[in-house]
Write a structure and sequence with these properties.
By secondary structure, the protein is an alpha/beta fold. The protein has two domains: 148 residues, NAD(P)-binding Rossmann-like Domain (Rossmann fold, 3-Layer(aba) Sandwich); 162 residues, Dihydrodipicolinate Reductase, domain 2 (2-Layer Sandwich). The chain has ten helices and 15 strands. The strands form three sheets. A seven-stranded parallel sheet has the order 3-2-1-4-5-6-15, sandwiched between helices. Strand 9 and strand 10 form a beta hairpin. The mean pLDDT is 95. Bound molecules: NADP nicotinamide-adenine-dinucleotide phosphate. The site of NADP nicotinamide-adenine-dinucleotide phosphate has 26 residues, from helix 1 and helix 7.
């Protein structure tokens, strides 16, 4: 059986998990690694992933990556660039990413058109995956709606003590942790962030045979009452140490679809925050469906794991979801953007792994 040839693009927190997944996956062959940092360039991919050497060496040159022969690129940078994604697609490589665009057809028509055209030109597919979005926000709730009939509200809540998440870009820029409320209000990506959360809301609506007719965004913050040490440095007193984002879409029938995040830089007791909020869980996710069937699906990690392990495993789910999507995305027909409404079920793949107990 020939293997799918894969390039790993960027080896941050998510990219490193994906790299490990590619090296281990029995149906995949790692053929290239793109890195940004000078320290990582020239290193073996196995060393970057904490595994044995693979013979594949990390490089920085984008043209060399574009020229490589490969089936698929797992594109995991921060920030991302739609023009760069299009270049990869036009070079005849499928692209899977934890970055946008999960369902860009309404929120960013221009990007959707560019991606579709690049897919047609390269005769390939584009798929945005991940954990949330890319799983909790749309794939799993859509699956559970198959158990329901009348649906009044679907709520996805993500809770995370993020003190050990080391991505400055995600924590400080995307999630505003460590910024003042004024800085957060004026963050140029605020509107972009809304659009990103409306994308999976629209995918759910489409999956239910409906459409979103009304949108609402609420961004609530709680400040630190002292300096807090974290993996991205000190979150200073009087800056944001908990953010609670709510993005809501209402369908034409009145069904509410709610994406909620509670990201905080403290433990669940919240003694370092200026006030507390009711956080349903230390870290993990809740999918709640209300209607004539009322369902609560809690997804989390065993309580005996440390907080660091919770965050690391959360990031692994993001990376591994990309890796496990490779066969489905490479084999999908009618080149273009592939969402969960287009793809078959994505599963893990054990191959001939040795199981450890
Ligand atoms: N959908 C989801 O569930 C989900 C979850 C988490 C994150 N994400 C997204 O996944 C992406 C990666 O997240 P992460 O946690 O791995 O972030 P990260 O740890 O900050 O890693 C980002 C990587 O981007 C590369 N980079 C450095 N400078 C860059 C530049 N100027 N332009 C582009 N890339 C640059 C670096 O690669 P090297 O280290 O190889 O040099 C860096 O490690 C982000 O865009 C984030 O928004 C999605």
């Amino acid at each position: 059986m020939s293997k799918y040839k894969v390039i790993q693009w960027a080896t941050g927190v998510v990219g490193t998990a994906a790299l490990k997944g590619v090296i281990r996956h029995p149906k995949l062959e790692l053929v290239g690694v793109k890195v940004y940092s000078d320290e990582k360039a020239g290193k073996d991919a196995g060393e970057l992933a904490g595994l044995q050497n693979t013979g594949v060496v990390a490089i920085q040159n984008i043209d060399a990556i574009i020229a490589m022969e490969a089936d698929c690129v797992l594109y995991c940078p921060m920030p991302w660039d739609v023009a760069e994604i299009c270049r990869l697609l036009e070079s005849g490589k499928h692209v899977i990413t934890p970055c946008p665009y999960w369902y860009p057809f309404f929120q960013d028509k221009e990007a959707a058109e560019q991606l579709q055209a690049a897919c047609q030109s390269g005769k390939v597919n584009f798929h945005a995956s991940g954990c949330n979005p890319g799983g909790i926000a749309e794939r799993f709730p859509l699956t559970f709606t198959g158990w329901c009939n009348r649906i009044d509200r679907i709520t996805m809540t993500e809770c995370g003590d993020c003190r050990t998440y080391s991505s400055e870009g995600v924590i400080r820029e995307l999630m505003n942790l460590g910024k003042t409320p004024e800085e957060a209000e004026n963050n140029p990506i605020k509107e972009m962030l809304k659009a990103f959360w409306y994308e999976p809301i629209e995918m759910i609506a489409e999956g239910l045979g409906s459409e979103v007719v009304e949108y609402e965004a609420r961004h609530n913050y709680i400040l630190a009452n002292q300096d807090i040490d974290t993996a991205v440095g000190v979150i200073e007193k009087d800056t944001i140490a908990l953010n609670n984002y709510l993005h809501i879409g209402r369908t034409r029938e009145g069904t509410e679809i709610i994406q909620e995040q509670i990201w905080y830089m403290d433990d669940i007791e919240q003694t370092r925050l200026q006030k507390t909020m009711d956080i349903p869980r230390r870290s993990g996710w809740r999918i709640k469906i209300e209607g004539d069937v009322n369902l609560i699906v809690d997804i989390g990690f065993p309580p005996e794991l440390s907080q660091e392990e919770h965050v690391a495993q959360g990031m692994s789910t993001t990376g591994f979801h990309l890796v496990n999507s490779v066969p489905a995305v490479c084999d999908a027909s009618d080149y273009g953007i592939k969402t969960y409404l287009d793809l078959p079920m994505v599963t893990g793949c054990m191959g001939n792994h040795t199981v450890t107990r």
